[in-house]
Write a sequence for this structure.
């Protein structure tokens, strides 16, 4: 079986679905890079997805468009996520994202910095496919 992380890391965006306490999934399109068998996402501290991850590390990931549209034939992958706050790691991953996405990532960071009026602390979401998860992954509404 091909490594789902490799395929997902090649996608321009993935829909990262985190789960509320009620079990309801919330999908968010995010930029992603790969580090061996791990997917890495950078996000501002305090976001809803980080709050939901504090409740459960269970996530699903699937390729999507910039606006979160998931192709009809895309299959969500069950995964586990952990949050990394170490600033050296955050800077390393942000450099990887800048290398992959180039100008659009740098522009996004510039706009975020100036709209927030200062540097906003970022955290990393480290995602690893859950190879022992059931084949029945809940459908995620990414749109």
């Amino acid at each position: 079986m091909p490594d789902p992380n490799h395929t997902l890391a090649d996608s321009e965006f993935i829909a990262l679905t985190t789960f509320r306490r009620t079990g309801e999934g919330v999908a968010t399109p995010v930029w992603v890079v790969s580090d061996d068998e791990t997917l890495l996402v950078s996000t501002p501290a305090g976001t809803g997805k980080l709050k939901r991850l504090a409740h459960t590390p269970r996530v699903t990931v699937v390729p999507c468009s910039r606006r979160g549209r998931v192709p009809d034939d895309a299959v969500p992958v069950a995964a586990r996520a952990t949050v990394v706050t170490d600033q050296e790691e955050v800077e390393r991953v942000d450099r990887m994202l800048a290398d992959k996405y180039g100008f659009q990532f740098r522009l996004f960071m510039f706009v975020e910095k100036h709209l927030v009026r200062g540097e906003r602390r970022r955290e990393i979401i480290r995602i690893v496919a859950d190879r022992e998860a059931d084949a029945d992954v809940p459908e995620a509404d990414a749109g």
